Amino acid sequence: MNAMGLTAIDLGLRGATSGVFLLIVVIALLRRATGQQVLLGVAMCAGGIFYAITTAPNFPKAALWWTLPILWAQPAIFWLWARAAFDDDFVLKRWHGALWLSIVAYGFAITLGWAHWPALAGAGGRGLALATLVLALAAAVQTVKTWRADLVARRRRLRLAMLVINVVLIAAVAVAGFAAIPVAVPGAPGSLPTALGLFVVAMLAGIGLFSAPAEAVDDATAAIASGEVRKAGFAPTGRVAVDPRVVLDPRVALDPRVALDPILLRRLDHLMTVERAYRQEGLAIGALAARLGVPEHRLRQAINEGLGYRNFNAFLNRYRIADAKLALSDGTQRDVPVLTIAMDAGFQSIGPFNRAFKAETGMTPTEFRREALSRLEIDRPLEISPPRREIG
Question: How far apart are alpha carbons 14 and 158 in whole angstroms?
Fold first, then answer.
């Protein structure tokens, strides 16, 4: 195939990539989604469109001075998206936006100074490439660190695939930054593989958005699981919305592959509420599955689809925080350090305990204890001495 044919394939892949990313952005806007993960996903899709267009063959090289700084800052958006997607406790802060703006400003300084100080700009470009590699590595570490705790099987598969491909693309651009020219030149021989990688990323993102299971199946599963859980005395979290039509019509077809085992839910309830397995330090879902004698994927399914949790740590923290609240409210333990209570409940350090406790109750453990003990003093009945009898 000649160069013209390869260029046509390249442009076609980039056009398809831009179309899929644009469709995702439009759907997100139509749904009026405002979550930080959605907003960062929209920003990443918009960056994908920008990258696909500005690195295409025959794109005007005169536009490099303003397009390259934005391209250089795209890894920061991807890193933030990975944090929001894989870390349920992540909160977007102002300094994250400042980081993106600083990379853009640094990129402009490099491109504008290339004509006058090429040696200095080259060194700056290599430094920026190093920062890109660090961000890509940080995104990969975030995925690995929270991979085991993720309970949503479909999300784990799709996001891992997207992450691997994105990290490879970002690393390829970063490695090019260590060459004589500090960035990969648009339209270079690596353009077609880049276009193919972008297309695969876009398709994975589209599959993740458009292949969600039917609501009736999810709701029916949740309804049945909630009913069995209530019979077992294991209160659901309320995170799964149940369609009343599903509850009234149990004939709704269920996928047999996602049928939940009520016996497993009852055994899990006993293990958590009676044996207090959550107190085990560093308890992982694999160890919990081993204690129950079931495959790990079945336990993930039960906790996710039956109880509405998307993260194993959130599931454990529900019991650990409840345990800590009881201890902090106990007047006989008023002198027990908060760290001891946290460790007894299963937390490994005070930092994660404080964050999880404040997210659950809206106050710190110390504030909760102070308020609980003050209420205890107010509610305590006054001791009334019996009247003395007068003699004589």
Answer: 21
DSSP string, 54-103: HTSTT--GGGHHHHHHHHHHHHHHHHHHHHHHH-TT----HHHHHHHHHH
In this structure, the dihedral spanned by the alpha carbons of residues 371, 372, 378 and 379, taken in order and rounded to 10 degrees, is 150
Q: Which residue has the tokens 């993740």?
A: 208
Q: Give bridge partners of residue 150 from the DSSP assignment.
A: 311
Is residue 55 a contact partner of residue 194, using CB atoms and an 8 Å limit?
yes
- Cα separation, 128 vs 71, in Å, equals 11
Half-sphere exposure of 95 (CA within 13 A, CB side): 1
Alpha-carbon radius of gyration of the chain: 28
Quick check: 346 and 320 in contact, CB under 8 A? yes
Measured CA to CA, the distance from residue 76 to residue 99 in angstroms comes to 8
To the question of pTM greater than 0.70 for the whole model, the response is no
**pLDDT (0 to 100) of residue 225:** 35
- Give the single-character DSSP code of 150: B
C-alpha 339/C-alpha 347 separation (Å) is 9
pLDDT digits (tens, 9 = 90+) for 135-186: 877 877 777 777 778 888 777 776 677 677 666 766 666 665 555 444 444 4
Question: Tens of pLDDT along 211-265?
Answer: 554 433 333 333 333 333 333 334 434 333 333 322 222 223 333 334 567 889 9
Q: Do 281 and 348 form a contact (C-beta atoms < 8 A)? A: yes
Determine the straight-line distance between the first and last CA of the chain, rounded to whole angstroms: 124
Contacts 24+ apart (CB under 8 A), 223-229: 223/247, 224/250, 224/254, 224/260, 225/260, 225/262, 225/265, 225/302, 225/305, 225/306, 225/307, 226/306, 228/260, 228/262, 228/265, 228/306, 229/262, 229/265, 229/269, 229/306, 229/307
Arithmetic mean of pLDDT over the chain: 75
